[in-house]
Amino acid sequence: MTGPHPAPAAVVTGLGTCLPETVVTNDDLSRHLDTDHAWIHSRTGIARRHRASPGTGTGDLAVAAGAAALKSAGRDDCDLVLLATTTPDRRCPATAPAVASRLGLEAAAFDLSAVCSGFVYGLSAAAAMVTAGTCERALVIGADVYSSIVDPTDRTTAVVFGDGAGAVVLERGSRDAPGALLHCELGSDGTGADLITIPPGGDHLTMQGRAVYTRAVTTMTESARSVARAAGWSPDDIDAFVGHQANQRILTSVAKRLGLPAERVVSNIADVGNTAAASIPLALADASADGRIRQGDRLVLTAFGGGLTWGSAALVWPDTEAVCDVRA
């Protein structure tokens, strides 16, 4: 007689990223903004960010990151493509079907809009579909070209955002498998919609930085604690905290409130800036490449973004090597 089978779960089996080739430093920005490297870095932790070249859209970055994730997983197909983005190539139709087609896939495909929380929202939605049997394998992509919606003369936003894409492959497995998503938690508060927004009739993103900082620190801390508790972990059990790379001071404040030492906090914001929905997979790829996260590590992913939206996920990291692409 055999014992009960482990509960089904969505398991991360591949990771891929794409960053535009063009790098914009703080010194580059200071040539046309009333700022300098010291001011930007001290307030954000950012030193440089990548920018898509003219004619390169979200779909281009998403295709490259998706192909890299499938290569990482050793797969050439999937039956769901979920694209988290605030900058779709068109207002209609969604960008995901075109991304799927360019990847040679005849898969269900749709866009998801949750701003900087988009990747965690996408993980949760895709994991639910995988574990329910709606699909066997899902490609979850976070991709944004914020340079298309940021006012280059607005010091509040122009110094913060970068372009990029990151993706993971999820497959049906068991909760005791490395890479298993153990728990996800999502939330929103629409009363804060004006804190991060493109106003009606406007073309550019606006952000109330001080208010966003306060809400982000409080909400990300509470969300991370809650998802860790649901996974049965104490703060001491968390090997790595991978927060949305919005601002280094936010990451530091959340880690302090969680009681996590600096070495357990994954940060790559200095090199890529705030890449919105691409932020967490890009941070995962960097941390995996340099050994900051290893197979078996217990990870908490936490994001906060416009909407207001937030979300967290708890997972055990698999033996997965990220595949990274660089595009013009």
UniProtKB/TrEMBL annotation:
Record field: catalytic activity: malonyl-[ACP] + acetyl-CoA + H(+) = 3-oxobutanoyl-[ACP] + CO2 + CoA
Signal peptide region: none
Domain Beta-ketoacyl-[acyl-carrier-protein] synthase III C-terminal: 230-317
Segments of this protein annotated with the region ACP-binding: 245-249
Principal place of residence: cytoplasm
Residues the record marks as active site: 116, 244, 274
GO molecular function: beta-ketoacyl-acyl-carrier-protein synthase III activity
CDD domains xrefs: KAS_III
Compartment(s): Cytoplasm
Tagged with keyword Chloroplast: no
Entry-linked Pfam families: ACP_syn_III (PF08545), ACP_syn_III_C (PF08541)
EC number, as in UniProt: 2.3.1.180
Entry's free-text remark on domains: The last Arg residue of the ACP-binding site is essential for the weak association between ACP/AcpP and FabH.
NCBIfam families listed in its UniProt record: fabH, PRK09352.1
Family: Belongs to the thiolase-like superfamily. FabH family.
The protein's role, per its UniProt record: Catalyzes the condensation reaction of fatty acid synthesis by the addition to an acyl acceptor of two carbons from malonyl-ACP. Catalyzes the first condensation reaction which initiates fatty acid synthesis and may therefore play a role in governing the total rate of fatty acid production. Possesses both acetoacetyl-ACP synthase and acetyl transacylase activities. Its substrate specificity determines the biosynthesis of branched-chain and/or straight-chain of fatty acids.
Protein's name according to its UniProt entry: Beta-ketoacyl-[acyl-carrier-protein] synthase III
Source organism (scientific name): Streptomyces dubilierae
Gene this protein is translated from: fabH
